[in-house]
Amino acid sequence: MAETAEVGCARPTGGLVGQQETTEQHTTQQTTQEVKKMIQVGKPAPDFVAPAYHKGQFTSVKMSDYLGKWVVLCFYPGDFTFV
Amino acid sequence: MSVDSVFVHKMWNDNEITKMVEGGVPFPMLSDGGGKVGTAYGIYNEDAGVENRGRFIIDPDGVVQAYEVLTPPVGRNVSETIRQIQAFQLVRESKGTEATPSGWKPGKLTLHPGPDLVGQVWKVWKTSMESE
Fold first, then answer.
1. Each residue's pLDDT tens digit, A47-82
2. Closest to B30 (Cβ–Cβ): which among A11, A42, A52?
3. ipTM of the complex
4. Is B64 among the domain residues?
5. B44: domain range?
């Protein structure tokens, strides 16, 4: 039976039901965690290209195009969240 | 930047944000479906499939000077971000000859790090200046 989801800033997510933990998946997760490391202050910001919406247009933004300027890069959980 | 598509960005900007800010979001709203960029920056929340509230200040050389990361329910403080940018800009313009003590704001005392200042900070900087 469906339950009413709690409303919050984190997006409700789903996932697989039942057993899924195999040795193979564990190995994959460990590999991911090695890569997932917090970046360091004083070190170069990772470069990227991302699709963007800006002033009514769909465009794309490349981080390294902003060399020579100060940049504030903000991540947030999702559009239409509360804070 | 969030994991939302540019289409959702458009709907959020056009239908809600324009009601809070005249003209809507003035800067590009970036899309990171799959969280690859968020993962590179260390703020992608794999369990929830969203980005945490990460804020990075990047200087003109592309170097990360500061970051702050919060869990989703608590919002950021834009004026503190601006204060930090002003401080990093001052330090950069001084080519590292000046440093900004705790609580520094534009126009307030800066420190000149060097051998003469070692053990002497208490003479020029008081803890009360932190919250002035």
1. 999 999 999 999 999 999 999 999 999 999 999 987
2. A52
3. 0.92
4. no
5. 1-51
